[in-house]
Amino acid sequence: AETMYGPLNNKMQFDKVSEFVEDARKSGAKIETGGKAMDRDGYFYEPTIISGVKEGVRIVDEEQFGPVLPVIAYDDVEDALERTNNTKFGLGGSVWSSDIEAANKLAARVESGT
Hints:
- It is a single chain.
- The protein is about 30% helix and about 10% strand.
- The protein contains four helices and three strands.
- It has a three-stranded mixed β-sheet with strand order 1-2-3, covered by helices on one side.
- The radius of gyration is 15 Å and the shape is globular.
């Protein structure tokens, strides 16, 4: 099967995503993959995964609507849930785990979506 990947909506959005990734890089985060524009016409930005990032960095604190996933480390699930729910945003959220039952219980406590 072929994968289709579209561009960001406009230059303003492209610039915003680029600025957020650069801000994360300057804050000491590690760009695991991606992190730059794609070499093609249009506002294409590579799918990007960022580690070593935390609250206080724009990519975590603000909505970016781009192909960027900040990975935030945690030691305690309850702390992670509190940090997750401590935002004025929350259009969507997900819980990833090898323990499906525990993930479902935790996901029910995440304050996101409708």
